[in-house]
Amino acid sequence: MRRNPRVVVLGEDVGRRGGVFLVTEGLIDEFGAERVIDTPLTELGIVGVAVGMALYGLKPVAEIQFIDFVYEALDQLLSEAAKIRRRTGGMYSAPIVVRGPCCGGVRGGMFHSQSPESYFIHTAGLITMMPSTPYDAKGLLKSALRAEDPVVFLEPKILYRTVREEVPEEDYVVPIGKARLVKEGSDVTVVTWGAMVYQALEAAKLVEARHGWDVEIIDLRTLFPFDKDAILESVEKTGRLMVVHEAPRTLGLGAEIAAYVAEKAIDLLRAPIVRVTGFDTPFPLVHEKLYMPNVARIYMGLSKLMKY
Amino acid sequence: MKALGLYRVIDEEGEQVGDFDVDVDKLLDMYVYMVRARILDDWLLRLQRVGKVALHAPNRGQEAVSVGATMALDRGDWLIPSYRELGAYLVKGMSEEEILDRAIANIDDVLRGSEFAVYGKRSVNLVPAPVPVGNQVPHAVGAAMAAKILGHRTVVMTIFGDGATSRGHFHAALNFAGVFKAPVVFVVQNNQWAISVPARRQTASVTFAIKGVAYGVPSVRVDGNDVLAVYTASREAVERARRGEGPTLIEAVTYRMGPHTTADDPSKYRDPEEVKLFERLDPIARFRKFLYKKGVLDEDQDKRIWEEWGSRIEATVKKCYDKPPLPVDVIFENVYSKPTWNLVEQHEELRESLKIARELGLEVE
Question: How far apart are CA A280 and CA A171, in angstroms?
Fold first, then answer.
């Protein structure tokens, strides 16, 4: 916001309250109520107005207090922000950033825990990101702010408090569409993102200790357009692929990645692709750790891949 | 209360019943814009019938709202209309040729064949309408808030139908506009029909204008077949917005004489007698009577206007009719600022399929 005076933030409780997770804390003091806008309670209004601001030339960052509430705004996000470049023949675009806390692990129940990335990925015109580290959160958000296309920026809320690291003060970006190699390995490729990166790491340690299996972990960071080259290069090396995500399995991004690898590189595969995901149910309040992919389920999947 | 009344400047007989501040040249301009919109509307209908235009949303009967509202805007102001506003596009600065190229979706279509029945031009701040009803209403508020934040004196106007007032977009937008005092003018084209649903089934509110009052938005109901009433109310709203006094909602009561679109058949739900009644209230005929009475226009002059624009527009239709089509590559255009890898792959797939279709002699389109 210091760098670009056209950036404005709008959403519920983003001003004085600093957001319910304090992501925007202090912004109103530095940039004033005209650029840090506490809005009425309507996601449809927040995203719709953000689109209009972007048409006029601002760079709005719209916060959805919990991403589970974005559905009211889907018409604005999927029909307008995503399609305005197309439907105006490139005359106008609405490169807004819609950000909000997502995913489970904080006993948030059905409406404070969802991972809705597939809805956005399925709509041409949107870029979807999910950082798993503070460094990437800053770098990806800066990329989002400089992007010429609308970005949905999903923040796994459990990581707000559980992951800490020093983040450089200086300006840097994490490029859109580039995955991060979390851990090198030679036996099996695990493609994942968000908080599941940490579950995959735990499981990798376990299988290494118990069986000596060497797991490679890729954090996608940008969910669409995803880093197909990083995935294919890794699978070329390991011959085995697992995708881990919190979102439900059916038509989750894992399905697309599996299909993509099968189409492009089925000859490289030494075992059928395995998906470890949230179940195809609403997100539960109780037993949420059993709904979300955990070390036991990832272990199970890795065993299946290695013993095939 | 203005939201419950029916503001008028000209009555059905063309008699002046209210004040206005418009000079003779501008009165004639208004009339000519309405005539041009009517002639163009008839052409688009005919072009749709012969399959040259995919779909058209007829404007007949609503020209006074389109023209009256937008003539109240200043040059740099923004307009985010709906898909039934030919008069507004002409006033804002699109030519008949640009509109026809768009409708036919030929090689010169600036929207690159992306959608039917919508029109726009960035150089005159005319944002193409979305096809989903009323989606543009919050955009107008956002654009107006942006103008205010940037310290510009721009006013943003949006036009939408009575059906749109039932959607969440309208309510969220009115609420934001009221809270943030956005410099925006909302114009409801209350044409009595949302496809087959009459206005009385769209709302139990006594008027559409009254909805604005609940959001703290000054609202006024005007006779939408009276171009001077629409203009005068709109001008006041635009000036208020420019003075920093916030939004206005204008309900313009008019009538959709034709079908919803060329894909609709009103005989299934509407009494033709009702249409005949409203034909007698035709906004162009009413304004003409007024101009005759004021001595601004006479029958000869009127005939010349219709003939002149009739032949000019016919010539433009001929010119646009035979322009070549858009290339197939438009399918992959303007999805992202730069094509993503999947689009590059799929574009290649399309090219290859066309090559194979040619080799096999298959008709694929």
Answer: 41
- Percent of chain A scoring above 90 in pLDDT: 100
Write the pLDDT tens digit of every residue in B260-294. Answer: 999 999 999 999 999 999 999 999 999 999 999 99
ipTM above 0.90, yes or no: yes
Catalytic residue, candidates B60, B260, B286, B288: B260
Q: What is the dihedral of CA B289, B294, B296, B302, to 10 degrees?
A: 20
Q: Which of A91, A93, A146, A253 to mutate to test the interface with B (most CBs of B within 10 A)?
A: A91
Q: How many CB atoms lie within 10 A of CB B23?
A: 8
For residues B212-220, give the mean pLDDT. Answer: 98
CA atoms within a 13 Å half-sphere pointing along the CA-CB vector of A263:
8
Q: What is the dihedral of CA A37, A39, A44, A49, to 10 degrees?
A: -40
Q: What is the pLDDT of residues A264-301, one digit of tens each?
A: 999 999 999 999 999 999 999 999 999 999 999 999 99
Q: Which segments of chain A belong to CATH 3.40.50.970?
A: 7-162
Q: Do A48 and B122 touch (CB under 8 A)?
A: no
Contacts of A159-167 with CB under 8 Å at 24 or more apart are A159/A132, A159/A133, A159/A194, A159/A195, A160/A21, A160/A23, A160/A101, A162/A198, A163/A132, A163/A133, A163/A134, A163/A198, A164/A134, A165/A133, A165/A134, A165/A135, A167/A134, A167/A135, A167/A138
What is the per-residue pLDDT for B245? 98
Of B233, B279, B293, B229, the C-alpha closest to B14 is B293
Residue A264, chain B, CB below 8 Å: the answer is no
Check B172 against A52: CB less than 8 A apart: no
Q: Look at residues B312, B273, B255 and name the one whose alpha carbon lies nearest to residue B95.
A: B312
Place of tokens 């702010």: A145
The two structure tokens encoding residue B132: 């989903």
Print burial letters for A153-183: b (CB count within 10 Å at least 16), e (below 16): bbbbbbbeeebeeeeeeeeeebebbebbebb
Domain formed by A180-307, architecture: 3-Layer(aba) Sandwich (3.40)
Closest in A39, A80, A125 to B130, CB measured: A80
The verdict on a CB contact (< 8 Å) between B111 and A87 is yes
Interface test with A, best of B106, B110, B139, B170 (most A CBs within 10 A): B139
Q: Which residues of A are catalytic?
A: 112
Q: Which residues pair with B80 in a beta bridge?
A: B158
Question: Rounded to whole angstroms, how far apart are CA atoms A57 and A61?
Answer: 13
Q: Which residues contact B304 (CB under 8 A, 6 or more apart)?
A: none
Q: Is A44 on the interface with B (CB under 8 A)?
A: yes
Size of interface A-B (CB pairs under 8 A): 149
pTM: 0.96
Cβ neighbours of B144 in A, within 8 Å: 52
- Which chain A residues are Cβ-neighbours of B135 within 8 angstroms? 48, 75-76, 79-80
Query: How many Å apart are CA A77 and CA A117, to the nearest integer?
Result: 13
Instruction: Give me the catalytic one of B46, B201, B243, B269.
Output: B269
Q: Which two tokens stand for residue A255?
A: 């399905």
Which one, of A289, A251, A275, lies nearest residue A103 by Cα? A289
Question: Where do you find CATH 3.40.50.920 in chain A?
Answer: 180-307
Q: B141, A42: Cβ pair inside 8 Å?
A: no
Secondary structure tally for chain B: helices H, strands E: 13, 7
Residues of A with CB below 8 A from B156's CB? 52
- φ/ψ of B167, rounded to 5, equals -90, 155
| Contact state of B335 with A85 under an 8 Å Cβ cutoff | yes
Fold of A7-162: Rossmann fold (3.40.50)
Chain A CB within 8 Å of residue B108 CB = no
